[in-house]
Task: structure prediction
Amino acid sequence: MPNKMSDNPDFTNRFNEWFNDCRAIVMDDNRAAFGYDLEFEEGYKYVKLIMNTGNQRSSWAFVRKSDGDILKCASWAAPAKGARGNIFDDHGGMQFIQWTGPMYLTGMKRVQSFV
Result:
């Protein structure tokens, strides 16, 4: 298993596209004027996305590097169980993403009921 994004160019390219799409959602509705931004840090197993609000930082999401699963945060340092999508899926991982991060499972069920 690769431990750096640069070891897997397919993951790196798709992650960068997905990250830019997520960042656009966060910056929408003039949130950039209030200091909101999205950044990421690469760890051994996961890439952690971080919401920066100018004066504080909080975990926004995790992406598992081995398979591209998108995970909601359980804490600053750990993802919750249960994937909220995959960066390689038909929706590019964006079906269950909001500006606040990946949806809760109940929100995902509501979205799926309309599809």
